[in-house]
Write a structure and sequence with these properties.
- With 441 residues, this protein is mainly beta.
- It folds into 2 domains: 209 residues, no CATH class; 195 residues, no CATH class.
- Helices cover 10% and strands 39% of the residues.
- The strands form 5 sheets. Strands 4, 5, 6, 7, 8, 11, 12, 13, 14, 15 and 16 form an 11-stranded antiparallel sheet that branches. A 6-stranded antiparallel sheet has the order 1-2-26-19-23-22, covered by helices on one side.
- Strand 4 and strand 5 form a beta hairpin.
């Protein structure tokens, strides 16, 4: 649709916008009429958009504020698994007494819950392994990075359903809702044997001796949920605790914390075999009618605008990308909910993500939040993004057009997924750009 604003209509628009000036938004919105600054503008929403589902690159997860664990078996997206690698630290020389007088009672890994995604009607299985390769606390690790581990697990939590709300009482101490996994007594006793020794002399010596743990979700299970954990913040109760006694003293404990001198990161795997995602990734079409986005470095949607130059020399007044979740793609039982927010980013020449200028502009409301609306009586979700500055850069030729990407937010540390109407459609669900521009001489 392409509209030239008639001068007589301008008077009415000025009145309406003056009356509602306190509600003025930098996003175009559903009324599709320009504000008083754009009365001489031309409106169109018919730009061709080519939309494709593409594989996401590995994402950095060492900077996560929360860490994911669990397995989701999704009828559309296949099976996705999240596991955690983490180091532990000590503050300096650890002296628990003579190693010969220390006896393990238990070794427990505690991880504080910080939300979840999906359903937990199906039980989860978690296995813990000891890391056998050096991890560098100063390094950035990505979602595909893995390290060698012990062949057999040092702990397990089988057929359990997480309790995300109940606090836990431990020896008269109440802590936040957490997952607690008992580990091998043999490992606990081995840790106690290091008391006053070289391996407990400093943090670097300790991490060289005890390289960390892999907390792994069992990929053979068919779970439907991923747990989120608070592991690294100063308020977290997450830690590794050895409970022990001496011949003359009982109920002793020592904590190995997950702190700022530790590397903690997620490892993600995805299996798209015989799913809609595999079909989309293998599609030979230049543009698809349905596209997909999944967190955890899985898949994203790529958007290109092949005919933008046909508009000629223009000044972009406003540009808004509008995407829609079709009613039949909204999960009826809310097991796999659509994300509360999404991102629209730039693509670089290698297909990686770059910040779009509108995202950091002080003059625009970037958007990307989920909105609920209705088409023909059916509930749908929409997300809208300001891409005004980016569109002007494209028109000016000041940037190379490698396309746009749609991702969930924050993609490295949530498990959300979403199905979207693509650009290759003719109905009201079509992905589109609402554009107001002025022709230049």
């Amino acid at each position: 649709m392409k509209i030239n604003i008639h001068p007589l209509l301008s008077i009415l628009i000025i009145f309406v916008f003056a009356f509602n000036s306190c509600k003025k938004s930098t996003l175009i919105g559903n009324d599709l009429l320009p504000n008083s600054d754009d009365l001489n503008g031309i409106y169109t929403d018919t730009l061709t958009l080519r939309t494709k589902t593409v594989t996401e690159f590995p994402l950095k997860t060492t900077t996560n504020s929360k860490f994911l664990l669990g397995t989701i078996t999704d009828p559309v997206f296949g099976k996705s698994t999240a596991s955690i690698f983490t180091q532990f630290q000590i503050g300096g020389q650890v002296d628990l007494g003579s190693p010969d007088s220390l006896f393990v009672d238990s070794l427990v890994l505690t991880m504080q819950y910080n939300g979840h995604y999906g359903s937990f009607t199906d039980a989860q299985n978690i296995k813990v392994y000891q890391v056998t390769q050096d991890i560098n606390a100063d390094s950035a690790y990505y979602s595909n990075r893995s390290f060698g581990t012990s062949v057999t697990e040092v702990g397990r939590k089988l057929n359990f359903t997480p309790d995300f709300s109940s606090t836990i009482i431990i020896v008269n101490d109440t802590i936040a809702a957490s997952l607690r996994i008992r580990l091998s007594d043999h490992l606990g006793q081995d840790l106690l044997r290091q008391s006053k020794g070289a391996n407990f002399a400093s943090n670097s010596a300790f991490q060289n001796y005890f390289k960390g743990l892999l907390i792994a979700s069992d990929s053979m299970q068919n779970g439907k949920g991923v747990m989120y954990f608070n592991l690294t913040s100063s308020t977290s109760v997450s830690k590794l605790t050895v409970y022990y006694h001496k011949p003359d003293v009982s109920a002793l404990a020592f904590d190995f914390i997950i702190g700022t001198d530790c590397a903690t990161f997620n490892h993600y795997t995805h299996n798209f075999i015989s799913t809609e995602i595999q079909t989309a990734l293998q599609s030979n079409s230049t543009s698809d009618s349905v596209v997909y986005v999944q967190s955890m470095a899985a898949v994203k949607t790529k958007i290109t605008i092949p005919n933008l130059k046909n508009l000629g020399s223009i000044l972009v007044n406003k540009a808004e990308l509008e995407i829609t979740v079709p009613a039949w793609k909204i999960d009826p039982d809310s097991v796999f909910q659509c994300p509360a927010r999404m991102l629209c980013l730039l693509a670089d020449s290698a297909g990686k993500n770059l910040v779009i200028p509108d995202q950091i502009s002080a003059n625009l409301i970037y958007g990307g939040f989920k909105e609920t609306t209705y088409i023909n009586g059916q509930k749908i979700y929409k997300y809208k993004f300001s891409i005004t500055e980016h569109m002007q850069d494209l028109v000016n030729g000041s940037v190379v057009d490698y396309g746009l990407f749609l991702l969930t937010y924050p993609s490295p540390e949530i498990a959300d997924r979403i199905i979207l109407a693509g650009g290759n459609r003719t109905d009201e669900l079509r992905m589109k750009i609402n554009l107001i521009y002025t022709k230049l001489p």
